[in-house]
Specification:
464 residues; alpha/beta; Leucine Aminopeptidase, subunit E, domain 1; Aminopeptidase; 8-stranded mixed sheet; 6-stranded mixed sheet; elongated; binds ligand BES; binds zinc ion
């Protein structure tokens, strides 16, 4: 898709018109005949009038994103080559609708669907610096979201830790970021035994990816982003039932989101020092696999009793969080992104990320950034009683809770054991298990990866 701003009255094959609040203002007769009401995701194409009408239930950014995406998908089912959208406001939402709604993943289709490249114009009276900036930023962010979708959608045997590291190197080169790839030998030296145990039964060696962006002028804040990069989660010896195992290529979504965010920070010229750290690991079975009853010692010396090898993400994150805090001093914000628990999906639904941590103000700020950026998120509060459920009889802590309830929160509380005192108020955990992977298309998200976390994080950073 070619997406452009224009002040000219370009002649296009189609015009996209949003019907807001179900108020039909033009072509009333024909739309009535077609029983078009202007509901969300309702769309009609009138070839003779060269118009696409699409419902937009209210004026919110989210409704605009969904409406534009619906219209673009309609256009893609035709041979019409171009469309114009008359801009009123919400440039970011229009761009999101176009770019995110247009995404298809056809890497593995031997016969690709023939969708001719469309020219989409956003028409305004005048293009000033601010609107151009808003447009450019939204385009960059959407392209990165789509890159993350490509990564996550890629099959696990085509996207294993070494490939993830290669992609990180590409992103680093393209954006002049510092990049370190740490291999198993080095991780052993620095005692990242929890992460190494998870990857031990895999034929793919684990990798730790560390990217760093430093602005040209002195950075105002230092932000550290840590991602769960489980390129496949079979559950390990606590093997997942088949129905739950498929889609687990998406367990790398947190790590991929971190790569996607690092792909934009320099393009946006943010006055922040940003670190992206990803634990890229595959959780498999075999004679060499770690097992329930093992006791692992994490990088910070804490011992962990393993009772379920499917609670592996928290082990990888524990070591990566320790690594981050040992390597990077004077952190202002420490966030981790992970498809950590099924419990989070059960608790808040498949569209919403769960935000957890000790600092409820910070958690709320993240929720606000999510909403402003078009993502859904909510906070899940800690309490003293849930904290007791991850105690172990034989080690410092157990990798699963003794209760079946509150699993998203107990997982976050496990992670809290690996946050240094000075960072306790600076850390938030973002469980993207629900929205990261879409099994039934919604809004502008087709089947498969959504790129959750990227827009949320960039919005937070832009607000600083
Ligand atoms: N990767 C899964 C969590 C998950 C589930 C992500 C569904 C996306 C969709 C994680 O590693 C896991 O298996 N967690 C277990 C934890 C349990 C063993 C305490 C879970 O959620 O069942
Ligand atoms: Zn698991
Ligand atoms: Zn997992």
């Amino acid at each position: 898709m070619n997406l452009n701003l224009t002040t000219k009255n370009i002649h296009t094959d189609m015009e996209i018109l949003l019907v807001k609040n179900k108020k039909i203002k033009s072509d009333k007769e024909i739309l009535k005949q077609l029983k078009f009401k202007g509901n969300d995701e309702e769309c009609v194409l009138l070839p003779e009038l060269k118009k696409i009408y699409v419902g937009c239930e209210d004026e919110s950014h989210d409704s605009i994103r969904i409406a534009i995406a619906t219209a673009i998908k309609k256009l893609n089912t035709t041979n019409f080559k171009s469309a114009i959208i008359k801009y009123k406001d919400n440039m970011g939402a229009i761009v999101d609708g176009c770019k995110l709604g247009n995404y298809i993943f056809d890497k593995y289709k031997s016969k690709k669907e023939e969708v001719e490249e469309k020219n989409i114009y956003i028409k305004l009276d005048k293009i000033d610096k601010n609107i151009q900036k808003e447009f450019d930023e939204a385009v960059f962010i959407c392209e990165s979201v789509n890159l993350v979708r490509d990564f996550v959608n890629t099959a696990p045997d085509d996207f294993y830790p070494a490939i993830m590291a290669q992609e990180a190197i590409k992103i680093a080169k393209a954006n002049e970021l510092e990049c370190k790839i740490l291999d198993e030998e080095y991780l052993e030296k620095i005692n990242m035994n929890a992460m190494l145990a998870v990857g031990r039964a895999s034929r793919h060696k684990s990798k730790l990816i560390h990217l760093r962006y430093e602005p040209k002028k002195k950075a105002k804040k230092k932000i550290v982003l840590v991602g769960k990069g489980l390129t496949y989660d079979s559950g390990g010896l606590s093997l997942k039932p088949s129905d739950f195992m498929s889609t687990m290529k998406s367990d790398k979504s947190g790590g991929c989101a971190v790569l996607g965010i690092m792909n934009i920070v320099s393009k946006l010229n943010l006055p922040l020092e940003v670190h992206g750290i990803v634990g890229a690991v595959e959780n498999m079975i075999g004679g060499d696999a770690y097992k329930p009853d093992d006791v692992l010692t994490a990088k910070n010396g804490k011992t962990i009793e393993i009772r379920n090898t499917d609670a592996e993400g928290r082990l990888v994150l524990a070591d990566c969080l320790c690594y981050a805090q040992d390597e990077i001093k004077d952190i202002d914000y420490l966030f981790d992104f992970a498809t950590l628990t099924g419990a989070c999906v059960v608790g808040v639904g498949e569209y919403t990320s769960g935000i957890m941590g000790n600092n409820s103000m910070l958690n709320y700020e993240i929720v606000q950034s999510a909403i402003d950026s078009g993502e859904y998120a909510t906070t899940l509060p800690f309490n003293r009683f849930l904290k007791k459920t991850i105690k172990s009889e034989i080690a410092d802590i157990c990798n699963i809770s003794s209760t079946r309830y509150g699993g998203a929160i107990t997982a976050a509380m496990f992670l809290e054991n690996f946050i240094k005192d000075e960072n306790k108020q600076k850390w938030s955990h973002i469980d993207i298990a629900g929205p990261a992977y879409v099994e039934k298309a919604w809004g502008y998200n087709p089947y498969g990866a959504s790129g959750a976390g990227v827009r949320l994080a960039l919005q937070f950073m832009k607000n600083l």
